[in-house]
Amino acid sequence: KNMNKRGQVSTFVIIGIILIVLISLFLFLRDKIYIGPSSEASLQDEFPPIEEHIQDCLTEKGEQRMRELAIQGGYLDPGPDTYLEYLDNKVAYRCFNVVDQPYCSARILTVDDMEEQLELQVGEDLRTDCLDLDAFDQIGLDMEIVTANVIRNLNQGLQNLKIEVEIGEDTTEFTAILPIRISKDDTFVERDKFTANVDLPLGRLYDVSHNFVNQEAVSGFTDTLLFNIAKTQVTNKPYMCQKLQPYPDKIYICKIKDVPDPDNEFIFQFAIQDEPRRGL
């Protein structure tokens, strides 16, 4: 009797293991095999997870590069002899010293310049470090990237990815341009643009930096305390800018209090080049 019971238990254990394996295999293959109808509506249903993946990459890499650009004075790569080393950051000079003068020569930086830098770097980040479109390829479906009427596989097609960036006062819009086609039999659908927003005040703090740079270029003097008070009253946003003087240069550090939150503030800082004063 004991032998029979043991045999029954062993049989149930084996059956249980087989069921677990079958269920696991089903769950794995469910996302790998497409068994739906080949209608445009059903194929459109395949886009939401792809869109979410691309948006997540845009948000992650976009925010990372925006913070890097802001803390380096508006430049992702300031270039040799154009920045000041400060707390392990390359803080770009936004105004260069004019010998024996209190004022400086402003370095032109536009919003378009910052957008172009972000477009190039975020595009490279997505191609090499974030996007994994192969994870959405399913048996029974064809998923391809179509550019200039040429159909490419996913890996080849990623080389044609383009990023468009639009910097606003408090929000920056990242758009990935990547024509993805999903097809089954003779039916196909396409999407070519995927957009994500990053809520950081890059544009607003750039405007502040521009204000200070202009004052330094004209007179070589600014009053950050008066600026903070006036700007906060006008905008009802708590501006906090300070001027440090790592001799002989200056560094301006600006933020809006508690944005996006107290433990993760967004800072825009830049340097003003100066020269040692005689007798000092």
List keywords for this structure.
280 residues; alpha+beta; six-stranded mixed β-sheet; five-stranded antiparallel β-sheet; 7 helices; 11 strands; elongated
Tell me about this structure.
The chain is α+β, with helices and mostly antiparallel strands. It is 40% helix and 26% strand. It contains seven helices and eleven strands. The chain has helices spanning 2-30, 40-44, 47-71, 111-130, 154-157, 202-218, 224-235, and strands spanning 83-86, 89-97, 104-106, 142-147, 150-152, 162-167, 172-184, 187-198, 239-244, 250-256, 268-272. The strands form two sheets. Strands 1, 2, 3, 9, 10 and 11 form a six-stranded mixed beta sheet that branches. Strands 4, 5, 6, 7 and 8 form a five-stranded antiparallel beta sheet that branches. A hairpin with a 4-residue loop joins strand 6 and strand 7. The longest helix is centred in the first third of the chain and has 29 residues, at 2-30. The relative contact order is 0.15.
Q: What would you call the quaternary organization?
A: single chain
On the 0-100 scale, what is the average pLDDT? 87
Radius of gyration: 28 Å
Count of discrete alpha- or pi-helical segments spanning 4 or more residues: 7
Question: Which class best fits the helix and strand makeup?
Answer: alpha+beta
DSSP, total strands: 11
Succession of helices and strands: HHHEEEHEEHEEEHHEEE
* Low-pLDDT ranges: 22-32
Global morphology: elongated
Q: What composes the largest sheet?
A: 6 strands, mixed
Proportion of β residues?
A: 25-35%
Helix content: 40-55%
N-to-C CA distance:
102 Å
